[in-house]
Design brief:
single chain, 807 residues, alpha/beta, Rossmann fold, 16 strands, globular, CHAT domain-containing protein
Length: 807
Amino acid sequence: MTDLNQSVLKFQEAVQLTPVDHPDKPTLLNNLGNSLFRQFERLGDMTDLNQSVLKLQEAVQLTPDGHPYKPSMLNNLGRSLLRQFEQLGDMTDLNQSVLKLQEAVQLTPDGHPDKPSRLNNLGNSLLTRFEQLGDMTDLNQSVLKKQAAVQLTPDGHPSKPLWLNNLGKSLIKRFLKLRLSDDRVNAVWAFSSATHAEYGPPSVRLNAAQHWAMCLQASSPPPKSILDIYHIAIPLLAETAWLGSSLPDRHYQIMQAGSVVHEAAAAAHQFGDDIQAVEWLEQGRSVIWGQLLQLRTPIDDLKEKEPKLSQRLKLNSLQLEQAASPKNFILNTIPVKASIQPSVLSNEEITSHGHQLAVERKQILKEIQMCQGFERFLLPRVIRELTPATTHGPIVILNSSEVYDTCYALVLLPNLPGDVLPVKLDSFTASQANILYHKLQTLLGEDGRTISSWNGESVSGAVPNTRIQSVRYELEVDAALRNLAFSNQDNIKYRTDARRKMILELNKGTVSQGFKNILAELWKGVVRPVLDALALMDKSLRVKPRLWWCPTGIFSFLPLHAAGLYHADASPGPKLSDFVISSYIPTLSALVARVSPLPLPGPPKLLAIAQSSSIGQQKLPGTVDEIKYIKAAVEQSRALTLTTLVEENATLENVVPELKTANWVHFACHGVQNPAHPTESALLLAGKDRLTLGMLTSLKVTHGGLAFLSACQTAKGDEKLSDEAVHLSAGMLAIGFGGVIATMWSVGDQVAPQVARDVYKYLRESGMDVSEAAHALHLAMENTRNNMQGEDDATFISWVPFIHMGM
């Protein structure tokens, strides 16, 4: 963003210093307008877009007819006017957009390299106007212009997949309007051609694949060949989140991919291939954490047998981590070569260098995989490589599909290596999961809430909704195709769009029914069927078995661990905690990497950090009590050494070096989840210091034990990135801690110290064994729940958020 801001400032200065009658004035105005447009696309500030339109209008007015740059300026103005219409809904902007783009196309000679691009842009504006006015002439012309763009572009051109994808969207829109089979056939051809075009941008190919799959889902019944589409689409997720990009940019790209991995797994499940469903869910979720873990994969075997390749990979991995890390933090922690020092390179140069490193990495991996014994080195794990995660107990993967409005569980069992047990959740749909999520957010007072300030400054979203109209188009096409699919399939239970059903349910006022109803619905619809399938409904067991939940999508925000019947007007009903000890994992790989921990040289070190009074936050006196409880447990067990950083000593400068050498860590402080900039979610330290999620990615903990995050929202995540586990607890797992105790939402200062006291009491009795952390939290929550006064929503909100992740 620094380069973009500087671009705007420099062009503004150039425009101001250039006289009106200077021949370069229109060009400078055009360049300023384009820079403002790009800045709006990134930040969503309407002032930038309005100024972009004004500057481009002035550039066009000052450019004489016949000037070779006039068509380009008209094209840029038409594009900005279309975006302004999408934001404000003024039909004058849309009509002017069409007129300017028509003029740009007319003035562009045949054979000009920009002719296809301008035809494509005109086709997009015409499609948008059809959406508003319903004039079939606009839709027909949209198809014709986009067909011309495709025909004029040679195969191998990097823009051709985009033209094909856009053509497919206009064709499918016309098919939905007129039901002409040729339009559907041609749309499928356009989407499939774009998907298969290896020279195209991965994000475009992925979007085309999603539309292609949606077309096939509208068949009756969908053909099994739909799985071939997903075999192309799922690997594109990792390519879209380009390893050479910054973390925020990778998150942005993943966000655009939507629910493709859920629908891919659902399709595989529908055709009885549950192993493929599990492998796709593993490959297509937590993509960015997976990339980080790959960069840190032990390569001892490779080093021994292929030392040169090992060294090249090690250097490349280190450089890629440096290229993607926050500049200020990385400079203080990891020495880097002057040639790639962020402080001496522009952002554009860093991006270019990151891309170069990613290409180099691809070639290195290809060479390694050609070596004997390394054929699957760093490739996506197959089922036989994932089942070791079940060493200590069953793992339940929960997935939903909006297309089929279904939910189901896929269970991996220790006694069934290489196999998957599917569990039907017949009475629980994707619509219901969404309803429960919004009920929960309403009870927590967080439905629709956004952060308006950060460090006292106004912030706009890192990924603003700057394309309202285009997003609306995508939703309308998707909904129409889904409804068509439902109308063609007798075995689909719900024949209305899941989102519409959810809105209708919410409008009935069901949200007010309370927390107990949410937990009861989860018990009846999700948890009870799973326990029945696993024969885990025996309360009499002296030692409760472990059970790991691996939720996907919207399930990631539902408190599965607390599911049960809690209504006071009847005898105490069954609860999940009566039968098993629950833990969560973001992916199977997160557990695979921890089934064989290395022996620890000497007693482990526990770093305890307490900060009761961060700037701008309420005081947390209970944090001091937590340190007392930890000291007592450590002194009595003598199993760990203890280092404490309290109040003014808990600075970023002190915490980071200690964290690098710690095996256990306890944070008692404020925590915040930043929805606008997820990697800026942070634990608040002394003064204005923050330990952010982005900073954590630069650390590596060896012999990691327990990370106890006694702070708010440390496992909350982001709805738009539900499958990326963008929260602090997942970050702690990724950097090497074996287990994490965290919170799904805000917690009170009265409850947190009690939970910490009980957890460490039970851990002390187990000899401070990290594998007993889930059991310790289970007992602590049982004690907390029993000591709670009342049965209202506030009571449940107080104790339910505490969860265990990992081993």
